[in-house]
Amino acid sequence: KPRIFSGIQPSADSLHIGNYIGAIQQWKGMQDDFDAIFCIVDLHAITVPQDPKGLREATRTLAVQYIAAGIDPERSTMFVQSQVPGHAQLAWVLNSITGFGEASRMTQFKDKSARQGADAASVGLFTYPILMAADILLYDTELVPVGDDQKQHVELARDLAQRFNSRFGDTFVVPKPRIQQETARIYDLQTPTGKMSKSAATDAGIVWMLDEPTAVAKKIRSAVTDTGREVRFDRGEKPGVSNLLAILSAMRGTTIESLEAEYEGRGYGDFKRDVADAVVAEFAPIRERTIELQADPAEVDRILARSAERANELATAKIATVHERVGLYPSL
Ligand code: AQP
């Protein structure tokens, strides 16, 4: 089976509906046809300041949410990045073959560092895409399911794989991005022109998967729409309505067109109530399962350790080859 790799940062206390639709839901459907590796990328998370205790808790919660939302640790490998040293080891080697100018062109760094102020941004944030390349290349990944915003990073991983292979001999599989559909990108409910983001300044436009059902429903009913009445998909003219259509389409597994037809001639009230009901119906059982699993942290740690062991086997073998190719001294 072709190998896929993807990850999420434990950078908040819960996943939000954007992470669910843009990542978890896609991953869930790929588990049978692919050899899937899903990582909890805590090394990426520390590229911006994190509270140590909060980070540890968020890491376990994220693992629990993966499982509760349908990632099956028996079929897929799901582990915590920092438990497999190969990620940091390979990142160092790749740092050394990446041009400074090349890394400076990464637009995510430009955006994130502009938000923090150039002096506050860490060097870790700057080399984030190179760590991501290491994550991908370490496991001979063929396909990387990501959002459109990550395309540039996967492109860098491809360039680095090709550069390493041509300098040191065939070592890495050159990965391809698998870009999710445009409708899998979810926007903030209060500012529907901006992506829903874990680190947004306010909470009102974010549906957290661990929000209580009443809070979920309230946030959706209060979502910003527009003064018209038509339920129609048009990101330019109707960003709020389009976002809710994208959400409902993902929840029901139906097309946007059929939803537009269903709500023709009906107002926003009906529509928003149905979106709220659909999200609550999907998330309430996941939330309950999350709370159940959280009660047994030792079991979660056992599951993570088992997966980390498998990942570590693959990673160690790859690191040995990489070190040998580069001319690093053999380890004892
Ligand atoms: N709004 C979104 N719509 C669809 N997919 C999304 N993803 C994130 N936000 C949306 C997908 O979720 C995964 C998580 O990626 P990440 O943890 O690396 O963080 P991110 O992409 O930077 O997401 P956030 O929520 O904005 O986190 P912070 O604020 O911590 O940076 C990826 O697959 C991403 O495509």
In short:
By secondary structure, the protein is mainly alpha-helical.
Protein model, in words:
The protein has 332 residues and is mostly helical. The protein is 54% helix and 7% strand. The protein has 13 helices and 5 strands. The protein has helices at residues 17-28, 42-45, 52-68, 86-95, 100-104, 107-116, 123-137, 151-168, 213-221, 239-252, 256-262, 268-294, 297-326, and strands at 3-8, 35-40, 77-80, 143-146, 176-179. The strands form 2 sheets. A 3-stranded parallel sheet has the order 1-2-3. It has a two-stranded parallel ribbon with strand order 4-5. Strand 1, helix 1 and strand 2 form a beta-alpha-beta unit. Helix 9 runs antiparallel to helix 12. The longest helix is centred in the C-terminal third of the chain and has 30 residues, at 297-326. The protein is globular, with a radius of gyration of 21 Å. 40% of the residues are buried. The model has no long low-confidence stretch (mean pLDDT 96).
**Amino- and carboxy-terminal Cα gap:** 34 Å
Question: Overall 3D geometry?
Answer: globular
Oligomer status: single chain
**Treating each run of at least 4 consecutive H or I residues as one helix, how many helices?**
13
- The beta-strand count equals 5
SSE arrangement, N to C? EHEHHEHHHHEHEHHHHH
Largest beta sheet: strand ordering: 1-2-3
How confident is the prediction overall: mean pLDDT? 96
Beta percentage is 5-15%
Main location: cytoplasm
Subunit structure: Homodimer.
Catalytic activity: tRNA(Trp) + L-tryptophan + ATP = L-tryptophyl-tRNA(Trp) + AMP + diphosphate + H(+)
Binding site for ATP: 9-11, 18-19, 147-149, 186, 195-199
